[in-house]
Amino acid sequence: MSTRASTLTGRIMSAPSIIVLFLWMAVPLGMTIYFSFLRYNLLSPGTEEWIGTLNYEFFLTDPAFFASLANTLLLVGSVLVITVIGGILLGLLLDQPIFGRGILRLLVIAPFFIMPTVNALVWKNLLMDPVSGMFAWLASLLGLPAIDWFTNAPLTSIIIMVSWQWLPFAVLILLTALQSLDRDQKEAAQMDGAGPVSIFFYITLPHLSRAITVVVLIETIFLLTVFAEIFVTTGGGPGLATTNIAFLVYTQALLQYDVGGASAGGIVAVILANIVAIFLIRLIGKNLDN
Amino acid sequence: ETKLTIATVNNGDMIRMQKLTDDFTSQNPDISLEWVTLEENTLRQRVTTDIATKGGQYDIMTIGTYEVPIWAEKGWLAPLDNLGTDYDVDDLMPAIRAAVSKDDALYAAPFYGESSMMMYRKDLFEKAGIEVNGRLTWDQTLDIAKKLHDPDNGVYGICLRGKAGWGENMALISTMGNAYGARWFDEEWNPTFDGPEWKAALDMYTNILGNYGPPGATSNGFNENLSLFNSGKCGMWIDATVAASFVTNPKESKVADQVAFTEAPCAVTCTGANWLWAWNLGIPMGSQNVEAAQKFIAWATSKEYLELVASKEGWANVPPGTRISLYENPKYLEAAPFADETLLAIDSADPINSTLKPKPYVGVQFAAIPEFQGIGTTVGQQFSAALAGQSTVEEALSAAQASTDRTMRKAGYY
Amino acid sequence: MGAIRLEKVKKTFGTLDVIPGVDLDINDGEFVVFVGPSGCGKSTLLRLIAGLEDVTDGKIMIDGIDVANEAPAKRGLSMVFQSYALYPHMTVFNNIAFGLKMAGESKEVINEKVQSAAKILNLTDYLERRPGALSGGQRQRVAIGRAIVRNPAAFLFDEPLSNLDAALRVNMRLEITGLHQDLKTTMIYVTHDQVEAMTMADKIVVLQAGRVEQVGKPMDLYSKPANKFVAGFIGSPKMNFLGGELAAKHGCHEIGVRPEHLVVSTESGVIPATVKIAEHLGAETYLHVQSDEFGAMTVRATGEMPLSGNDKIFLTPEQDRIHRFDAHGLALG
Amino acid sequence: MGAIRLEKVKKTFGTLDVIPGVDLDINDGEFVVFVGPSGCGKSTLLRLIAGLEDVTDGKIMIDGIDVANEAPAKRGLSMVFQSYALYPHMTVFNNIAFGLKMAGESKEVINEKVQSAAKILNLTDYLERRPGALSGGQRQRVAIGRAIVRNPAAFLFDEPLSNLDAALRVNMRLEITGLHQDLKTTMIYVTHDQVEAMTMADKIVVLQAGRVEQVGKPMDLYSKPANKFVAGFIGSPKMNFLGGELAAKHGCHEIGVRPEHLVVSTESGVIPATVKIAEHLGAETYLHVQSDEFGAMTVRATGEMPLSGNDKIFLTPEQDRIHRFDAHGLALG
Amino acid sequence: MEKKQTPLGYISFSAFAWVVGLLIFFPIFWMVLTSFKSELEAVSIPPSFISFDWTLENYVEVQERSNYFKFAMNSVILAVGSTLVGLVFAVTCAWAMAFNPTKRTKDALLWMLSTKMMPPVGVLVPIYLMFRDWGLLDTRFGLIMVLFLMNLPIMVWMLYTYFKEIPTDILEAARMDGATLPKEIIFVLLPMALPGIASTMLLNVILAWNEAFWTLNLTTSDAAPLTAFIASYSSPEGLFWAKLSAASTLAVAPILVIGWFSQKQLVRGLTFGAVK
Ligand SMILES: Nc1ncnc2c1ncn2[C@@H]1O[C@H](COP(=O)(O)OP(=O)(O)OP(=O)(O)O)[C@@H](O)[C@H]1O
Ligand SMILES: Nc1ncnc2c1ncn2[C@@H]1O[C@H](COP(=O)(O)OP(=O)(O)OP(=O)(O)O)[C@@H](O)[C@H]1O
Ligand SMILES: [Mg+2]
Ligand SMILES: [Mg+2]
């Protein structure tokens, strides 16, 4: 189907989306770039002045920047590892013939539909509260001191909450992928004398690679900008323990009202995100194509 | 008909007001009210963005004593010049009134005001044989906390704010700093975290709360501590005076009849050892409904409103800390055993002279400059890291010094 | 080394009686083909032998030993799946080597065995490719390669050619036949393709609804089908069945005449008929004709026949090629 | 009403010259079959005629009018796709009616036309079903139904039978032939199946690499191929090509003998050979033999031949069936 | 592989799986349970599981404080509205990319996805200013636009992969049948891609429903959805866990139910068609 007429209509039809997306990205981005070269505090309107790259210098030399960069990577990386491994294990489990599999599945995927804010509120208050929370009570049952989650393991706590939210997503996709594994292949491996463990590593895992790629791609997109969980629970602390790039930009924009600094931070974040994107696209270009 | 959009914080008094607005709308049938209730940080970020960009989304904003002077200075707030004849401006407490005025004109009307004080458990004090005469010092407080601390039985010596934030842990730590003779900035706007005063204050803070406080102190703010205290887990609690009405309310508090009050501790000085804060209602410049908004504000901050609350919910629940007359009202004094202490605390707080050494800024537990929110929060985080044991006190202080210095320099103060 | 014996083998899925009971003897080195209509249980039978399904009842003996409780890999059989079931993420080499790896063979042994299998199957140049980059025929050879390296007692093939196009099928058919001649290993081969069954088998097993209808050499089944089912199933185009007086004259209920055993004449003959469609294939001609008495019939004539639609012709069955059936469909002497 | 004429039609995809230039005349009412190896441009040619691709150069005339700039629907042609391309979400009725609806016909006209097409194609009982609930053959008839309601100037078929199993193919082949006999509309039919080409076509167009190798009646191509390519392509099994002295004796570079034109004898003959594999199909026997002089050869003998591997035989070409080719592969008178 | 599952294996697998499943679900269960407790019971240790006074007072109070249905209605309008607008754009774009690809198509797709990686707070001020100037603050229309633009890349991706699975033949057949482009899309493409479109819509409804930054920062009251509703509960004074739980339950209930009903569809949607 490639007549001149149809190629032209193709261009015309894809244009609206590309144009609106471009505007949606370019106009704010353009303004942001412009702002990033200004001394611009929202609370002092009318005093904007051109200060060159000073905002970038401040943002990049801010000790918080490297801490938050490390936290971002740690957060994204840990959640990816937990959800992928957990997703595979749970997927394998739910792939077995078990009693009430349908209902069980609904239970397992439920966290995915929960608003991040609600997720954070529930975990922070009902579960992780070191005095009246569920975990504290469980610890006391076992005669252990209550873990003070947001003090002693702040980033871990965030990772747990975010993982809880995204694990079902991984399960959902990996389970489907598991179910699409050709039975013949498993049987052929059986005939070849492979046990369950060998089958898993030699047959199942490679089969899942594409699904894992999808999980990694989509989760990364959303995990890079995790915000609500941090905002509601630790507010980025203690210290900088849970400040990620998104939160750091937030503190600039909405605590200091330093629009210039926040803009510079936003641009830096965009650049970082694009580096991650290029890396991912390399990865996916291979895995998604066939 | 006029629709007023009102942004409020989600605390108990404000929510109570929402419920009572029928009284207002029946008097003013041509005005309808639209409430936007948000958690404190979100509220602040929403209204600040809106007023600074002249978004014009709100007719009335609930703002703190931190914002009022800054915004009034910038001309963002409409002066409240038409509150009605029987509003009785002079009945407002002087400290509070000063905090919301510029050049003698009112730019926001205080809804309730607070200072800080210490709440403690009579029964536990008695058991430990402690008597309170006069104002405590922090060193004495530390001793008491040691004695009371009994985590095995679910009692922690002291509860204090630990959650990072300029309005959370920094509110308390600033007053502690003041008590130890520290200040946020010297006359040249240089931060002073490298001085010995801050070191002493922060040492005390991390020591007392870290060793004799509840677990999870770094995520405890006002609400968390309130829960703890109400469920009988704190021996002492130094926090906002408004807490008094909650901790003495038997419906919410297990220890309602065991609570006593005293002033917040001093150290080398008592100046600035207790903070001053009020939630106020203000009208952004550019609101289309200034007249109706003033009507509403007048209603919500009037003496009549206090009586309305009293008639519906009892005197103990009226919004405290704004009007002198309330503290002269025998019915209130009877219902509110904490009234005297509250009045004392508020009266003794002075936003201008709150530090031992001179300072260039206004505010007891904050500095009323636009950059302060960011600075306060960053410093608050560094201090909470010290509390969590992630860094030492020295590290936290030098980090605070460095980051504040950066911000001030960037903002062009020097 | 590869004699397989089924004794009263039964298989039910839930309540579905897929194999009601099969007895079968397969000799060492024999090439046995299972044929039968779709759903008759061919694959099931194969999978029972392979050990991929448990028998519900009965015994499966390999070289005299009951293997009912052996894991598939332990039975010493190799299976080539219809889909080939190659491991898509492994190279050809690793596909072939997988079974050896699982058996814990050393690197050298594996390499040697894979290389020699690849040589037999002409795969040496493709060892580093993934299955995705192979043609259908090459894939099939990999599947076979995977099977032969393990030196199985017998090969099991489940319709291995059904995914290939016609030209490739012919080639692969010849290759498998050649392989069997070289290796002399027992092979069990499932197909529903006439030509494959006829040309490859030492012995054909005709199945219907999980029951063995007839077992025998291809030409025996062709010339002496035990019943109407086998008669109709073996041979293409299908045998013509004629009842009525003609059958009665032969002393039976129905006679069967294969299309190639009808002599065509334009002048005279036993059955007058009209040509509906004549298909000229060059080397032969298929006539689809209509007879008043017997309805639609098919004729297969050698060479070119100058006939076309609506021509009147006469057909005469070759006398010694007539099959006779009784009312139950059983062949009569 | 359906004469199609291609003049110097050229098609390139990017830099790939798929059709270097084709001239072709198709008469009204003719059944033309395009054959050729995979990738030779059969589908492309068909799609050019249909208007689904633009020609790079040249003219396509339908009934004398150049249609280069007409949209596909305007050319008055109907296409039956290999996959049938039925609309899965519409009933059979709506599938057939879709084109009429798009043309804005009234409800009554649509109903009438669909009903009559359904009658011709025996689809009346299925009009309310979705394609998913139809068998392969029925689907194909729906695809044809969709084509015929529009009263096209010509039908274009792109390998319409290649998805079907062997038995169904035979049936559908006969149905399409019957349809052509009834409608007498021009049909262009792409296939790579020998039998279809031979049996259905009025005229076969043999393509290779986008070039027309020969155009002619099926039996003409079979008996008088213009060159070695056509000779080898038409007829199955493939023609044997023999060079050397035997060819020289016939005064040419190479001779071609079809497998069915080799006489087999166990005693004497022109070409001594050894049987490698003998395939007994009942009605005929394929012998894959090896000759010292000519290498591998195929023989197709009628009936059963009692031969098997390693038997020595002698082959003699039938003299009047020999094809002679020069060094360029062109046939010699 | 399923052939040798013993009853014992079945039971132990089932038991184990249920334990894990219930653990994962526990926070939600606990939230719902707490919403029926009184505030004091909500914080009591040891926690009570069943033996407490079940009460609806938290729900009553939440509803008294803020009109849940107004927020919920806004959530529905925003989620559905942005999805529908998105669909119009995404369908045409995905059609073009799937059936008339150019060399740039792959790049365009990946570029679209990369627009999603920018932290929204970085562009809050520009957007807020634009919204103010165009009078879009606190309007459903404005938010629908934002949500639509946010989710457009994912919609295009998903639809693109579905459309890729549709045989081109069928569209060509429609063309031979004389269908014009709009008719081809409406009568042939859309009905055939219906399952894919449904899953795309569902996922977008969920994403729009849970979007908490723009919906909070660009609304005040008229257009405020449930994310704004919940923002007023995160820490009021006094004991609030039970009320918080009630509000949370109300905020997530609709989407949880929708999610459960549509989980089969969603899988297809989420995987970009990557898992067959
Ligand atoms: N796991 C199973 N559960 C239930 N029924 C099954 C199962 N496997 C096969 N069957 C049924 O058993 C019967 C025989 O199936 P089988 O696959 O052996 O047929 P087949 O002869 O191989 O057919 P085909 O030629 O179509 O491959 C069929 O009716 C099938 O539906
Ligand atoms: N859109 C296209 N872009 C580039 N090359 C193409 C395109 N369509 C077809 N080709 C190439 O053109 C040549 C002819 O293709 P075509 O589909 O016409 O072959 P065919 O004769 O129909 O083959 P088959 O019998 O396998 O269907 C092939 O080499 C093919 O790769
Ligand atoms: Mg089968
Ligand atoms: Mg083709």
TrEMBL record, chain A:
Keywords: Cell membrane, Membrane, Transmembrane, Transmembrane helix, Transport. InterPro entries: ABC_transporter_permease, MetI-like, MetI-like_sf. It is a multi-pass membrane protein. It is found in: Cell membrane. The chain crosses the membrane at residues 12-37, 64-90, 102-122, 134-151, 158-179, 199-218, 230-250, 262-284. Belongs to the binding-protein-dependent transport system permease family. This is Sugar ABC transporter permease. It comes from Thalassospira lohafexi.
From TrEMBL, chains C, D:
InterPro entries: AAA+_ATPase, ABC_transporter-like_ATP-bd, ABC_transporter-like_CS, ABC_transpr_MalK-like, ABC_transpr_MalK/UgpC-like, Mo/tungstate-bd_C_term_dom, NA-bd_OB-fold, P-loop_NTPase. Keywords: ATP-binding, Nucleotide-binding, Transport. One of its GO terms (cellular component) is maltose transport complex. It comes from the Bacteria. Residues 4-234 form the ABC transporter domain. GO terms for molecular function: ABC-type maltose transporter activity; ATP binding; ATP hydrolysis activity. Gene3D superfamilies: 2.40.50.100, Nucleic acid-binding proteins, P-loop containing nucleotide triphosphate hydrolases. Pfam families: ABC_tran, TOBE_2. Signal peptide: none annotated. This is ABC transporter ATP-binding protein.
TrEMBL record, chain E:
It is a multi-pass membrane protein. It comes from Thalassospira lohafexi. The chain crosses the membrane at residues 7-30, 76-97, 109-129, 141-163, 184-209, 240-261. One of its GO terms (biological process) is transmembrane transport. Belongs to the binding-protein-dependent transport system permease family. This is Carbohydrate ABC transporter permease. Its main location: membrane. The keyword Translocase does not apply. The keyword Coiled coil does not apply. Keywords: Cell membrane, Membrane, Transmembrane, Transmembrane helix, Transport. GO terms for cellular component: plasma membrane. It comes from the Bacteria. Residues 72-262 form the ABC transmembrane type-1 domain. It is found in: Cell membrane. Signal peptide: none annotated. The lineage of its organism: Bacteria, Pseudomonadati, Pseudomonadota, Alphaproteobacteria, Rhodospirillales.
